[in-house]
């Protein structure tokens, strides 16, 4: 390996690592707020990318149907609950988002000349379809189990993953696809040349991380999420409903996932089931951070990206094995530090 | 009807099946048996032990590939064991044992979700390894695996191997049922929701988790061995992560807390999969694994609506009477440790300080309990009593100073070792296994009495060689239950008792470990007047029988007529120490603690 190749691999590693870092942050967030280990994170990556592919091809993306069905189910559950408890007030905030919004999204996507829209709008539409699925999934699968143990939530999480992969095959088919780059060409920085898309990925990831940081530090919603992560009961007593915090964190996870998918879709071919292994690499990063530290999780994810990139050069057949095996020394270190027996929540 | 009758009927049906069922159903039954064996391991791990693994398929693969390589020998230098798949079975089990022990030792000391995450990574890695390794045949796999021979019979057809598969499964079921009904099985059943309690009763919970994990892995490997010799070829697909997830679905849908739930789950998933794979592609108009959508949704609904799975729903409709456990009081009692002579120094707390960051919760506290005494540690809320209690029972380590029990330092030891030294405790918020009977709960206290060691305990428990020992444990538990006056409730579930009786049950459990000092954490909290009186009566009786007691309380009335000496804490410091009469008159105590009461009395 010479210096140029090493640089090229580093560029690849950092680009992928930036995506893994985003996903790792979302996973830490979801776990802190809801105690859900969010395995379906990767599916949002695939859904985001493939929805954009459909939009750019001028087809009505299948995720619209999922949005309609998921929103319809949420509405149904809430209406039944409203009838049982004889209180219709809750419906005022539920129905617009779960019934009216999906119908509106459907109407817009079915009637707009998708293919001829500027790319930014296409991306916006793809996000508008995929991201609301996050809070809906929280409502359907996780909210009824908010008090369950981490283990049960993890099993549900895996079940949601399985369902989403199955539905992904149903609505997108088995074909893989790529999207055109945000901007073509390469950029020369001295002797180093970087593809424009890589720079897009890195810049967007950094921007998103900064935005998240600001949102958490400065906005009321961010503070509410942080409070819930520190102490769920305490936050509830202070008037922050657990369900709201859960939906909000799933909204952010879905946003980060879908955006990650859109960012890498020009670099790598995405299939309906590609998301899982991408999400898992974010996981390895999150586990390096002990599922609790944002900066260490992000750095860990970057490390995963670099490791993957260099091992694809030396032992390409085994690169996935090497990446997933990275988890073992991490667990070893954590295990040696573990001291007391504690009760599982 | 007794469960043994139903089992007999079931076994008869199993025996008749190969003579009457058509080929299609035999094949299906073989798969159900193979899957159920894996799901059985997950019942032990998930439903009983409160852990889980998504990587069981990888262990199945380990068993299958080991036998495939050894019996066909594509590796140079390894002689083919073509005639003896049985040797390959042993090799596969040993290899699995090794891998599971390694993986377990990495994750089992961490909180419960690291194990399943570790198994996802491990499941992905191993399946990828199978696929990429040339010696393992890559994605096409290995062919030419010989059939198994039993006593000269070669098991070539599905009908022949059916017998072996179901013999293996039934052996697994019986072993698991036996194990759960033994000393180590009780420890495994305590893992779900009772780890802190189990540790303080002397159970090494990491080791118990390891036992459950390794056993689950071994069952999976055995299933893989059978699979390889049934199919006569192996490729990586059936050992990949999606299959690992499906195994977990079987266990949870069948009823993860019930051994027979594994069979039910394997049956439901396998049969409905065959059916769904036929109809779903026609409905949606394209080919693909759409049945997983149905299973996933079913899984979510079951966990939300009926987390115990389908098995309890089924048994509720069957006229089954579960026979009550038999206690045999005539068996020779367990050995007891010698009672320390009255007046011997038992517990010595020497200038102990504990800081939490800048907060000094306990400062320079000293305290002594001698054999034959009841000592109370009292103080108003927030005085640092609970911190003191945790320092003594090994839940917290002191920042400085020393805690000695019978002359040996306690600080820094895990609570299970402290329990072994003869110091047994109860909890302020009762920690019982609500679904288990009073008898079983109390028997956990005897976990380390005449302890044969973990491995011996598991092996004798699994093969029913521990019956005389188990009878003595249960007799001891029953004796302690009678001693505290709960004999009428012995076979009820612990969760059905009122709080006062639950606290007394905790005392019986602590007594079952044959302690010389009993540590009681606010035993009177939340009790009604009559319950308090009964509790005080019991403690007096125990003292009369030579037991020493340290109790932490803030209920003055309860303490005053009962104890020999009192130590009073406030703001983390000792403010008084002496006989109950002296304490009641001590001005500092009156000011710090009884001040409000005295004023009310005056008014």
Percent of sequence in beta strands of chain B? 5-15%
Q: Indicate how many domains the architecture of chain A comprises.
A: 1
- The DSSP helix count of chain B reads 23
Radius of gyration of chain B: 29 Å
The overall number of domains of chain B is 2
Strand order of the largest sheet of chain A: 1-2
Assign the structural class of chain B, choosing from mainly alpha, mainly beta, alpha/beta, alpha+beta, or little secondary structure: alpha/beta
Architecture of the largest domain in chain B, according to CATH? Orthogonal Bundle
Quote the distance from N terminus to C terminus of chain B. 68 Å
- Strands in their spatial order, largest beta sheet of chain B: 10-11-12-7-13-14
Gross morphology of chain A is globular
Which two chains touch over the largest interface? A-B, 49 and 54 residues
Radius of gyration of chain A: 21 Å
H/E topology pattern of chain A: HHHHHHHEEHHHHHHHH
Major β-sheet annotation of chain A: 2 strands, antiparallel
Any overview of this molecule?
- The complex is a heterodimer of chains A (345) and B (603).
- Chain A is an all-alpha fold and 345 residues long.
- Chain A has one domain.
- Chain A contains 15 helices and two strands.
- A two-stranded antiparallel ribbon of chain A has the order 1-2.
- In chain A, strand 1 (186-189) and strand 2 (192-195) form a beta hairpin.
- In chain A, helix 2 (41-56) runs parallel beside helix 7 (150-172) and helix 3 (63-85) packs across helix 6 (133-142).
- The longest helix of chain A has 32 residues, at 3-34.
- Chain A is globular.
- Chain A starts with a helix and ends in an 8-residue tail after the last helix.
- The model of chain A has no long low-confidence stretch (mean pLDDT 88).
- By secondary structure, chain B is of the alpha/beta class.
- Chain B has two domains: 3-316, ABC transporter involved in vitamin B12 uptake, BtuC, CATH 1.10.3470; 345-422 and 515-602, P-loop containing nucleotide triphosphate hydrolases (Rossmann fold, 3-Layer(aba) Sandwich), CATH 3.40.50.
- Chain B is 55% helix and 12% strand.
- Chain B is built from 23 helices and 14 strands.
- Chain B has helices spanning 3-20, 23-48, 56-72, 85-107, 114-132, 158-180, 183-189, 195-200, 205-231, 241-255, 259-284, 291-305, 310-316, 385-392, 415-420, 438-444, 454-462, 467-484, 499-511, 529-544, 556-560, 580-585, 587-602; strands at residues 142-143, 148-150, 153-155, 233-234, 345-356, 359-370, 374-378, 400-405, 408-409, 423-425, 517-521, 548-553, 565-570, 573-578.
- In chain B, the strands form four sheets. Chain B has a six-stranded mixed β-sheet, with helices on both faces. In chain B, strands 6-5-8-9 form a four-stranded antiparallel β-sheet, covered by helices on one side. In chain B, strands 1-4 form a two-stranded antiparallel sheet.
- In chain B, helix 6 (158-180) crosses helix 17 and helix 10 (241-255) crosses helix 11.
- The model of chain B is unreliable at 597-603 (pLDDT under 50).
